Amino acid sequence: MTVDIAVDAADPRFAALPGRPGKIIAIHLSYASRADQRGRRPAAPSYFFKPSSSVAASGSTIERPAGTELLAFEGEIALVIGTPARRVALADAWSHVAAVTAANDFGLYDLRANDKGSNVRSKGGDGYTPIGPGLIDARHVDPDSLRVRTWLNGRLVQDDSAAGMIFPLAQLVADLSQHFTLESGDVILTGTPAGSSVAVPGDVVEVEVSVDGGPSSGRLLTTVVQGEAGFDEALGSLPAVDDLQRAEAWGSREAAGLPADGDAARSLSERGTSETKRPDHTNDVSSRFARSTTGDISPELRAKLEAAPTAGLSAQLRKLGHHSCFIDGVSANLEGAKIVGTAKTLRFVPFREDLFATHGGGYNAQKRAFDAVAEGEVIVIEARGDDSTGTLGDILALRARTRGAAGVVTDGGVRDFDAVAEIGLPVFSKGAHPSVLGRRHVPWEHDVTIACGGATVQPGDIIVGDSDGVIVIPPSLAEEVADAALAQEAEDAWIAERVAEGHPVDGLFPMNAEWRARYEAALRQAQGPGAR
To answer: What molecular function does GO assign, one term (predicted)?
Structure first.
């Protein structure tokens, strides 16, 4: 049986290209301006694929799917491969590029978390890769002289040159050729500079690539329209956004209409509303896009957790099959301290001179975490159990205290130990150490899954600590665990009274059937008439 597959060589989507590309390879992060905006700089390029079905021509429209809000544009320089490249040297890599043009690497941030970096759904949609309209001959182009500019509704929002890239254009070609053959017609999307943001229905986005004082690709024009089709929950994961995705999609918390310190957003989330201010041109977003409040603790649950000892809570977790809830090796700086809060995580990596030079100074991840901690949150720090240096000191402790943090848990050391204690911020650590951060650690990232004292901690997990230690409670289990722990505490208190009266513990602790019946009778009597 013969099957004919028709491919229209004159498909208007590929009008700016030699034909339908076999591969479209895109880089995650490549411009210094974008890396500085994101607060992280990669040590090496990383990539993802986009399907050729996502290509669109200049003048096309792109749909924002129903039920989504964060369709972001990214103006980019696109490289079109001429002669195949396989394991080419850096010095020869540019000779394999036939042409350069403009591209717009659209992405739907509502689906980004579900894709975990692959970007299959978040960046693979139909029309999500406009390319064109014209090609620039790469043979006579100095790669560093290339410039990309993007306009949103006629306003210039992105303007950077390839000279501002962390990884030179030729390096991307050489690097990719180490892993697979770059074939004629393949396209490499080389990343976007700072200024990428969200586009909403009615917006017009234009991208142009040019050579300083030389040829231009012309303006690549795309109009955003509102789609009517959404996503079927029976088939796969649904769109979901939080304020981190909003801030990254818009480019900053300010651009997303979020308070710099998160106070207003937190207040709204506690009321269960979606009144968080958005920029004027996004007021068509439905109220069901309220910020995620996963991990928030209600006043009622917080009161229960504060009343329940960690020993009792951990016992109930073990009954539910959770045996890895302990943050081991830490103790409180304040006698009798009790902390209850949701985790805000911070991760340090082992010290390395070049990494500390790029990530240790300035407004690093450590400072950003302490500046952004919300009232009632616990900053949980991964220091790999290394207590031979401080992971915070008095200034950061004061900042956290001023912000209303519930406390700090670190499996490393604390600098200015006595001063931190005087501030009154509960800190659970491995102890005091006088040295500064740069001796052992590089502040790397925050609000990610970490390991602290042998326990996995995710942002939003519930942290409870007292003189017995610190435990991690999955938010979905917190109510059940707290209720069971308090019930057990009441039972233990009754048993303690019987022991004080002179009863032996045999049969009483734990209670046999006879003692259980007596206890339940005492409960009914205490509850009054009608209790069953």
So the answer is: hydrolase activity
